[in-house]
Amino acid sequence: MAVDALDTRILRLLIEQPRTSVREYARILGVARGTLQARLDRLERDGVITGTGPSLSPAALGHPVLAFVHLEVTQGHLEEVGEALAEVPEIIEAFSTTGGGDLLTRVVARDNGHLEDVIQQLIQLPGVVRTRTEVALRERVAHRVLPLVEAVGRATGGGAG
User: pLDDT (tens digit, 9 = 90+) per residue, 86-111?
Assistant: First the structure.
């Protein structure tokens, strides 16, 4: 789906001012409210906008330890292990991957001892052969999408305007 200059400006506002009303977005952008709403609906329908909820901090929720746990899975058990991972609240993301493991999970914990407990729980899942854990020391680039939005807008001739 092509993202044009107006889409880029809309997405920038959604990222930078997420609590603003649609009417205020339309005023800021100098477009009709109906135009803005139609654009938002299309961006949602096309899967560009995937959510509108707040971003939450696991650290502020008492889970400051972040680790990436790679899981090697017995052939034929990937779906089963993926479903089991969804039942572990400390796993906040899981991806099938290529390379040295079959699954990559993003795990949060209260402390290192709690992280070890979570890893032991993962090792015991039927189909998990082994795990490899990497503990994050410090976030260097926070999750972001705006630079990509702006690059896509520039590539389609839109710019960030």
Answer: 999 999 999 999 988 899 999 999 99
- Contact in structure between 108 and 138 (CB atoms under 8 Å): no
> Do residues 78 and 63 make contact, with C-beta atoms less than 8 angstroms apart?
no
d(CA 148, CA 25): 21
Q: How far apart are CA 141 and CA 118, in angstroms?
A: 26
Q: Look up the pTM and report it.
A: 0.83
With residue 82 as reference, give the H or E element that holds it.
helix 78-85
Q: Which residues of 2-33 are buried (b: 16+ CB within 10 A; e: fewer)?
A: ebbebbbbbbbbbeeeeeeeeeebbeebebee
Give the type of residue at 14: L
Residue 84 CB neighbour total at 10 angstroms: 18
Tokens of 127: 């189909």
Which amino acid appears at position 144 of this protein? R
**Rounded Cα gap, residues 33 and 26, in angstroms:** 5
Contact 136, 68 (CB under 8 A): yes
The angle formed by the CA atoms of residues 82, 137 and 134, to the nearest 5 degrees, is: 35
